[in-house]
């Protein structure tokens, strides 16, 4: 059996490595000549611009046979999400948008709308997307953003800039030539990075001898670019940051403040000279990192624009520009793309190596995902990506207690991935654990089947998980059914999480873990005494209160506090083998911090009274996964 298992595994890896490279090449190969860029060097009001296919772009603008209204979307990190609210208000009030320019986050918003997405679908993407899953640490900068580019191309109806519904130009700065650069063609995943490559944060983007960085570092508005491209009327957004109260004695803070001053003055001059109408969103209380406040930022941009609509209509009328009812946009089915993001199925074309750092929870690949057992140890490892392949190694305490290895082959088909897991605990007297499975990803349900061995017991595996995340009711479930090869016994490991929201702040939730096996570890959720790894039943009832801060609290310049909460819990367990059961109750407080506004760091403090041992247990859980 092991021999056949090994042959099957090697076959899958071989066909994926040597088959997917050719198939991927076929997928991304553009039409002949499609990427032949004709660069034009344009001197415009004292500055030089490199513009891709300038004449073709101008011809498309002029073919509209009417005054061209441009929307120039500013940068500013998360603050610039307010740009989406601006677009929403303009569209609702029949304000024409014939041309779009964007820098940094403004370029991302311009790309989504310019490609043909409706405002409502953009809102769903911007407010519901788990931004943390789009970024990895490393890759030539603090954060690797390759997944961002791949995901945005996946959800965009038109994948190439030159085919956009609205002519769109992305502004960046070319370090090689020292000139501003306007991208007007190419695949989104290949060109978008240039517009938000902030040195230190995101990798510098290189292409055909050009090295690009975010022009918004010094020029947060692309209003001048819109004027260069032939706009008759420029609507420019402005999403400025608030004044800082830092001690500027440090090198970092003084350099950052210097750039802020230059950006503010230079952007102000551009807006004053080239913008016919400026919409300034009051986002000064939000930072570059506040992606968790996306819904609020969209609303700020929307309300500010709505309040300025009468004034904008008068300005357009003065220039003899008529209002136009925008053509209704198709609603696209993005379930597959959002599913791929949720389950980390996006294909990164380039090879990369990323560090793995976990603390507070056990992230062994053999464990279920819904609940993770508390683990007050560091787990370190490394992960290698190449096209559809993902290979990782993970160990705790400098690998002194063993290690796990996991291979994943993404998208054997559009809906199926292959997993291979291996565990070595350095015990020569015990068999190593291994498991192989094929997993099918559906719209709401996922199913898997495979074969493996744990603690010396070989088994066949069937698994499923599903999520229902309604407005007030949420139910998440993960279940694994094991059929032992020799005894023919069925064993079940089942985890359930159910939550009901009474209000935005108050909710009640229950957690249940059932395990009928003696060779598969249970995820531990009981907060009283320490339990055996194979405890039969654990259940928890939580009465929760959570307060979302109106404004984030910045800590140490790179952490932000967004919510605080507390709850009362009642925990129960039953261990049939030990003929024991217990009950624990107590209060708990929790909070969530975000590193750079993206990567969550969870804090939880609890006090539990265990009635079986008549003793108290206190816990401070600090967990993160990078």
Automatic annotation (TrEMBL):
The keyword Lipid metabolism applies. One of its GO terms (molecular function) is hydrolase activity. InterPro entries: Acyl_Trfase/lysoPLipase, NTE, PNPLA_dom. GO terms for biological process: lipid catabolic process. A motif (GXSXG) lies at residues 102-106. The active site is at residues 104, 214. Residues 71-227 form the PNPLA domain. This is NTE family protein. Pfam families: Patatin. Residues 1-25 form the signal peptide. It comes from the Bacteria.
């Amino acid at each position: 059996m092991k021999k056949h298992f090994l042959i099957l595994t090697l076959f899958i890896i071989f066909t994926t490595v040597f088959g997917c490279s050719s198939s991927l090449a076929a997928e991304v190969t553009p039409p002949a000549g499609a990427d032949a860029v004709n660069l034009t060097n344009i001197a415009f009001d004292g500055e030089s611009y490199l513009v891709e296919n300038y004449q073709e772009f101008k011809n498309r603008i002029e073919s509209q046979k009417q005054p061209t209204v441009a929307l120039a979307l500013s940068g500013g990190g998360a603050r610039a999400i307010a740009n989406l609210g601006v677009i929403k208000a303009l569209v609702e009030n029949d304000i024409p948008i014939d041309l779009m320019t964007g820098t940094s986050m403004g370029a991302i918003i311009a790309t989504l709308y310019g490609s043909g997405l409706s405002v409502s679908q953009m809102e769903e993407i911007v407010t519901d997307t788990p931004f943390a899953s789009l970024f990895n640490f490393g890759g030539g900068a603090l954060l690797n953003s390759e997944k961002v580019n791949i995901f945005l191309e996946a959800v965009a109806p038109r994948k190439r800039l030159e085919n956009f519904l609205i002519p769109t130009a992305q502004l960046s700065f070319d370090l090689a030539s020292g000139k501003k650069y306007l991208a007007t063609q190419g695949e989104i995943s290949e060109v978008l990075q240039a517009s938000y490559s902030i040195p230190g944060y995101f990798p510098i983007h290189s292409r055909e001898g050009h090295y690009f960085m975010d022009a918004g570092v010094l020029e947060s508005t692309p209003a001048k670019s819109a004027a260069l491209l032939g706009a008759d009327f420029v609507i420019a957004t402005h999403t400025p940051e608030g004044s800082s109260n830092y001690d500027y004695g440090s090198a970092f803070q003084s350099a950052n403040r210097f750039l802020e001053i230059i950006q503010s003055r230079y952007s102000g001059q551009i807006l004053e000279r080239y913008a016919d109408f400026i919409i300034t969103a009051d986002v000064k209380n939000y930072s570059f990192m506040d992606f968790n406040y996306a819904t609020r930022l969209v609303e700020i941009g929307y309300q500010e624009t709505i309040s300025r609509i009468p004034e904008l209509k008068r300005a357009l009328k003065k220039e003899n520009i008529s209002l136009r009812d925008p053509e209704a946009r198709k609603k696209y089915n993005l379930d597959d793309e959002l599913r791929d993001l949720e389950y980390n199925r996006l294909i990164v074309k380039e090879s990369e190596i990323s560090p793995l750092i976990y603390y507070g929870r056990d992230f062994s690949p053999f464990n279920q995902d819904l609940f993770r057992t508390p683990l007050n140890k560091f787990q370190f490892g490394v992960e290698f990506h190449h096209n559809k392949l993902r290979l990782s190694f993970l160990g705790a305490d400098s690998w002194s207690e063993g290690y796990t290895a996991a291979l994943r082959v993404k998208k054997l088909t559009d809906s199926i991935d292959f997993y291979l897991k291996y565990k070595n605990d350095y015990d020569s007297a015990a068999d190593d654990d291994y498991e192989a499975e094929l997993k099918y990803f559906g719209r709401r349900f996922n199913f898997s089947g495979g074969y493996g061995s744990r603690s010396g017991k070989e088994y066949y595996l069937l698994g499923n998980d599903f999520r229902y995340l309604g407005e007030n009711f949420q139910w998440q479930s993960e279940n694994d059914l094991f059929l032992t090869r020799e005894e023919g016994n069925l064993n079940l490991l089942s985890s359930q999480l159910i939550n009901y929201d009474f209000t935005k702040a108050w909710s009640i939730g229950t957690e249940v873990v059932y395990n009928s096996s003696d060779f598969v570890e249970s995820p531990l959720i009981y907060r009283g005494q320490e339990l055996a790894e194979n405890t039969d039943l654990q259940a928890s009832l939580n009465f929760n209160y959570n307060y979302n801060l109106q404004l984030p609290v910045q800590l140490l310049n790179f952490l932000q506090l967004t919510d605080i909460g507390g709850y009362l819990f009642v925990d129960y367990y039953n261990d049939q083998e030990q003929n024991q059961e217990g009950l624990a109750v107590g209060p708990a407080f929790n909070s969530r911090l975000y590193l750079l506004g993206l990567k969550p760091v969870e804090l939880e403090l609890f006090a539990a009274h265990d009635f079986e041992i008549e003793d108290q247990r206190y816990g401070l859980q600090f967990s993160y996964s990078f």
